[in-house]
Amino acid sequence: MKCHLCGVKEAVVYQLHTSKALCRDCFINDILKRVELEIKKYNLIKSNERVLLAISGGKDSFTLLDVMSKIHSSSKLIALTLIEGIEGYNRADVLDFMKSKTRELGIDHIVLTLKEAVGASVDEFVKNMVLKNIKIPPCTYCGIARRRAINKVAREQGVDKVATAHVLDDEAQTYVMNILRGDTMRLVQVHPKGPWLSKLFIRKVKPLRKIYERETALYAYFHGYKFQERECPYITHIPTLRARVRDYLYRLELEKPGSLLRLVELLDEALSDYVKKYYELPELPHCKMCGEPTSYNREICKFCELLMSVGLIK
Amino acid sequence: MKCHLCGVKEAVVYQLHTSKALCRDCFINDILKRVELEIKKYNLIKSNERVLLAISGGKDSFTLLDVMSKIHSSSKLIALTLIEGIEGYNRADVLDFMKSKTRELGIDHIVLTLKEAVGASVDEFVKNMVLKNIKIPPCTYCGIARRRAINKVAREQGVDKVATAHVLDDEAQTYVMNILRGDTMRLVQVHPKGPWLSKLFIRKVKPLRKIYERETALYAYFHGYKFQERECPYITHIPTLRARVRDYLYRLELEKPGSLLRLVELLDEALSDYVKKYYELPELPHCKMCGEPTSYNREICKFCELLMSVGLIK
After folding, report:
1. Which of A293, B55, B183, B314 is the most exposed place for a label (fewest CB within 10 A)?
2. H/E element, B155
3. What pLDDT sits at residue B314?
4. Chain A closest-CA separation from residue B309 CA (Å)
């Protein structure tokens, strides 16, 4: 079958949400165009801005790296990979591959352990937690520590934006989760024009937020990425709210391809005025221990609280 | 245990979403106050307006009738009950109870069969459908015919508003369903300030939209209502989108009581500006067969289309 777009080359991809069969080149071009469109629509990144790409090494972040190198000046991009410090989960092969990719693209690539970046690896956190005989999901520490580390590096590097590899599936899940939770504050922060509550936070953008995960998998594969997602040893299969929403949304997407895209577009549009009400919020207060921004109702930030609770700071 | 509100009478109800134990009187007063607050907040019904109460006879509609008689002048209320015309599902006992209730409250009560109101009962529709050897869920006809009948009676009676007995559970489901479907047009119509697209439609309001179904069940029970919901013989247990959303939301509510209330409040608030964009839409076009309003993309309304498809009109 010929590609539905160019009509010349053999189709190799069936694009579920448009019911079109595409050749490799048209598939790739379509992704590039859609990312560019999203960036332009919400003015996510200006052409002269310096951007830190937070790349874990998964297919989504590989796609982010490759796409951004094609639509933004490579000299204005810096990549950052954080090593969590989890025994048996170092993914050295993936990291080597990502490093050769950034080298090839001429993009500076910072590789840091969480220990170097914020003082404690995930394993260290868990070890201390076990000693104190308390239970906190390691993912809680990992998530908070990584966000802190990314923001710290972004500030040190003086970039204008941080780009993360969140895809459409993530956005749809986060939107629905926050609606189900009734969490307006987090809901508005999913929106590309959501409020930014502290000058100490470098603005985060999500260039792939209208691209399906199934598309990044193909995009990465077409560009020589051949790793499988590996499972972190700390993963638990407790049915969290996100896991249930994810399952639900996948079923919906399966029945009606394009549903997730329509859902995110609907909420982007429906919330576009509402998010502006949050612009008037005051700057976030600063943590009394580390000086970083923290939630309105806190004196000590969640990161310091976690480290204190396991005895890593006093 | 004493009531958490008055501190005097024995508590008989545990209000899940506030974690409060209430006595019968405080429970009832709380419902009345919350309905009044909702009506006032969105200016759903003005004190001088005449209102048609669409009451099926279920506990929700019993509650609507009783609550409205207490917070609005009874002389400005008219009740309407429609008989679907389904063999083995006439619920004469419930109807007698509702009629004695409206008599007691001094509220005019119109009882009409769907046949009288719009020309064909549900059974007649199904019979003709079988003859034509086509398949349309009877609920599709029943829902559309009832809406048509309610609006017709409301217009004939010259009322200002139609009040339906939709409760919080319904509102939460409809909001989430329309988000999942990406149906913005229907999404904004769930909102109490949603657009009203035709002068031929009498404006519908939902006074119980912040009251849980579990609360209307108790409220009705406290006022002498003792019927169980009976199942329509045409009901099918196909897992529709609504059924799945309902299950999901009930689980959420069970885990975190108050979730549905927060969800509806969040969307009411988040969509409050957005719905106004729809005020600029033109009036709905009129069906070429019956002259009633129909969707923008239609020439013949869904109701006429259904009747034609089974040969009830030509």
Report:
1. B314
2. helix B138-157
3. 83
4. 26
Say which DSSP state A13 is in. Answer: E
Q: Which residues is A14 bridged to in the sheet? A: A21
Give dist(CA A307, CA B39) in Å, integer.
49
Q: B242 — contact with chain A (CB < 8 Å)? A: no
Residue A50 is predicted with a pLDDT of 98
> Between chains, do A263 and B187 touch, taking CB under 8 Å as contact?
no
In chain B, residues under CATH classification 3.40.50.620 are 31-309
The CATH superfamily assigned to B31-309 is HUPs (3.40.50.620)
Q: Please give the torsion angle defined by the CA atoms of residues A88, A89, A92 and A98, in that order, rounded to the nearest 10 degrees.
A: 170
Cβ of A157 under 8 Å from any chain B Cβ?
A: no
Q: Do A180 and B252 touch (CB under 8 A)?
A: yes
**CA distances for A48 relative to A51, A73, A75, A161, B302, angstroms:** 10, 8, 10, 11, 54
With a cut of 90, say whether residue B240 has pLDDT above it: no
Asked if B168 and B210 touch (Cβ cutoff 8 Å), the reply is yes
Using one digit for the tens of pLDDT, what is the confidence trace for B182-229? 889 999 999 999 999 999 999 999 999 999 999 999 999 999 998 988
Instruction: Report d(CA B148, CA B248) in Å as an integer.
Output: 31
Q: Report the C-alpha gap between B14 and B257 in whole angstroms.
A: 12
Count interface pairs A-B at CB distance under 8 A.
Answer: 66
The yes-or-no verdict on residue B53 having pLDDT over 80 is: yes
CA B122, B127, B132, B134 dihedral sign is: positive
Contact list, B265 vs chain A (CB under 8 Å): 182
Residue A83: C-alpha distances to residues A53, A108, A142, B65 (Å): 15, 17, 10, 63
pLDDT in tens, A210-220: 999 999 999 99
Range 169-188 of B in CB contact (< 8 A) with A? 176, 179-184, 187-188
CB < 8 Å to A187, chain B: 266, 270
Query: What residues of chain A lie within 8 A of the CB of B266, using their CB?
Result: 179, 182-184, 187
Residue among B266, B272, B276 with most chain A CBs within 10 A, to mutate: B266
pLDDT at A225 over 90: yes
| pLDDT 10s digits, B255-289 | 889 999 999 999 999 999 999 999 999 999 999 99
Instruction: Specify the CATH number of the domain A35-227+238-282.
Output: 3.40.50.620
Angstroms from A19 CA to nearest CA on chain B = 18
Residues of A in contact with B259 (CB under 8 A): 180-182
Q: Give the up-direction half-sphere exposure of residue B213: CA atoms within 13 A in the CB hemisphere.
A: 13
Question: What pLDDT is attached to residue B245?
Answer: 87
Of the residues A273, A276, A279, the best mutation for testing chain B's interface (the one with the most B CB atoms within 10 Å of its CB) is A273
* Gap between the terminal Cα atoms of chain A: 66
